[in-house]
Each structure stands twice: as C-alpha cells, then as structure tokens.
Write a structure and sequence with these properties.
By secondary structure, the protein is mostly beta strands. The protein has three domains: 1-79, no CATH class; 84-174, Immunoglobulin-like, CATH 2.60.40; 178-272, Immunoglobulins (Immunoglobulin-like). The chain has three helices and 18 strands. It has helices at residues 9-18, 39-50, 270-287; strands at residues 84-87, 91-95, 100-107, 110-116, 129-133, 137-142, 151-159, 164-174, 178-179, 186-189, 194-196, 200-201, 207-212, 215-216, 225-227, 233-235, 244-252, 257-268. Strands 10-18-17-13-14 form a five-stranded mixed beta sheet.
C-alpha cells in the first residue's frame, strides 16, 4: 500500500462533490463501486492515481469509516506485519534468593529472539539463567537472584531482513531483613562493658531499635546503654540487675518490612568466674 500523503484540496473537494448524493433516512450511503462511475465522476480518482496518493478516511464526512482501498487500487496491496516485541512485565522487585521468569513475545515474522543482560552481553544457558525459546516466544528464568543481577534486561527480535526490535524490563534486587547467626544467651562478666551482638543485614540498610523490659532504649539511657554504629548494644559496667531478655528490632521503612530477635543476657559475677577458672585449671592438671 502506498504511504498516506496530504491530498490536494481541490482534488479532494472535486471527489466529494462529484459523488452522487442520496437522500433519505439512515444517513449517507456507502461509496459507489468504481466501475459504476462515468468518466466525469472518475476524474478525481484518476488524479489521485497519477499523484500516487491514498485517500484517508474523512472523519465527520459521509466518507467516514468507509474503506477507500479498492477505489484507487481495486486489487489492493498487502504488506508483512510490522515487527513488534513485548515483555510480560515492565519492572520487577525481587529479593535475594528468589527466582523469577519473564516472557518475551514477538509479533510479525521473527527469525531470532535473543536476551541481553544489564552489561549488554547476550544471555546463554547457565545454572542460574535458563532460556526456553520458540519461533515467536522466549522465556528467561533467573534462579536464586543475587544483588549483581539487578539492571535492565532486553529481549531483541530479528526478522529475515535483519531488522530488529526490542523490549526491556527493569529488575531491582533487594536484600530482605536477615539476622545472621545471632546467639542467645550471650554471657558477660560482672563489671565489664558488654557488647550484645545483633548482626542484621538488608538493603537499604535497616533501622535498628533495642528494647529492654518492653521499653525502648533511647538517648535518655546513654549513661548505661549505647547503640553502636554496627547495631550492637553496649552496656556499661554490666551487673546482675542488667540480666534479662533484650529485643533487637530491625525495620526497612521503604518496604514496611520489620522483624526482631530476642537475646538473653547473662551476667556472671566475679566469684563464679574465678571458680570456673579454678575448675578448668584443676581439670587440666588432673589430665596431665
């Protein structure tokens, strides 16, 4: 089909005015077949043919909605469908360790479908990334996602002429709140400065709040407690009165994610520590 161009106003008006008018209910009639027009009525069509023009549909006129193919070119033209590519998802958030798949679909006559990673490299089959490709459909599977998997993934379709079209999906990877090997109970010696360990990770970095006896430890308690930059809780001159269960609570405001772990703190007085040391020494001597 010839590309649509702007038609000379005089030619267009001549075509409209020369078409027979029919009165009556039900609105304007459809355009008459080209073969039924006399030489005077065919003149505007001939002018359009000579100019290699294609008449558009005229909104609001009596030609509105009437296909003009077959009036200017009775045989009609056919062209291959344009190559189009789409991905089932546009943007995805995935936590570390999760798996996800994406479906790429191509419309037209693709001869090849390829996926590209955020570094611009063509993706090939691997243990963590699987590909299942058919003629016009390809599925990319990402297993056990890691932070380094984040970025823009592209699906590119190629037709027989070498023409390419592509679509993309943005993959964001985040680390869920995770407490790493937090020990309970944690024991300390009377009078020492204790550091209660709470190792928690997430992305973005979590906000950590400590509680003791159902009360939040704040700056008001800084003479006794301090939350360190590594999220551990420091207790100055720990003693028996400081024993109990401490709660380490972590949250990520951006996702509304929150979790906690309870840690029992045990304080051994100096006498017990000396006795334990002596027993260990005696056991060692007996062994020798």
């Amino acid at each position: 089909m010839n590309p649509i161009k702007h038609i000379d106003t005089a030619i267009l008006l001549d075509l409209i005015m020369s078409t027979p008018q029919v009165s009556g209910r039900g609105g304007a009639p459809p355009l008459p077949p080209v073969g039924s027009l006399d030489s005077r009525q065919m003149a505007p069509y001939d002018k359009c043919r000579e100019s290699s023009l294609t008449l558009p549909t005229l909104g609001g006129s009596r030609f509105a909605g009437a296909p003009l193919d077959g009036y200017l070119s009775p045989e009609g033209d056919s062209s291959a469908a344009a190559l189009q590519v789409s991905i089932s998802l546009n943007k995805v958030e995935l936590s570390v360790g999760e798996s996800k798949f994406f479906i790429c679909t191509a419309i037209g006559e693709p001869v090849r479908l390829d996926w590209y990673n955020p570094q611009g490299e063509r993706i090939v089959q691997s243990k963590r990334m699987a590909l299942h490709t058919e003629t016009s459909r390809s599925r990319l599977i990402i297993y056990n996602a890691i932070i380094e998997d984040a970025g823009i993934y592209r699906c590119q379709a190629t037709d027989a002429s070498g023409h390419t079209e592509e679509a993309s999906v943005v993959l964001e990877i985040y680390q869920r709140l995770t407490f790493q090997d937090v020990q309970s109970p944690q024991e300390f010696r009377h009078g020492d400065t204790a550091e209660v360990v709470c190792d928690v990770i997430s992305s973005p970095v979590p906000v950590v709040v400590w509680y003791y006896q159902d009360k939040e430890i704040t700056e008001e308690h800084r003479n006794k407690f301090q939350v360190l930059t590594n999220n551990n809780l420091q207790i100055y001159q720990v003693n028996k009165a400081d024993e109990g269960v401490y709660r380490c609570e972590a949250s990520v405001e951006a996702r509304g994610e929150i979790d906690f772990v309870d840690i029992a703190v045990v304080v051994n007085d100096e006498f017990i520590m000396r006795l334990t040391y002596r027993r260990s020494a005696l056991s060692l001597l007996s062994f020798v």
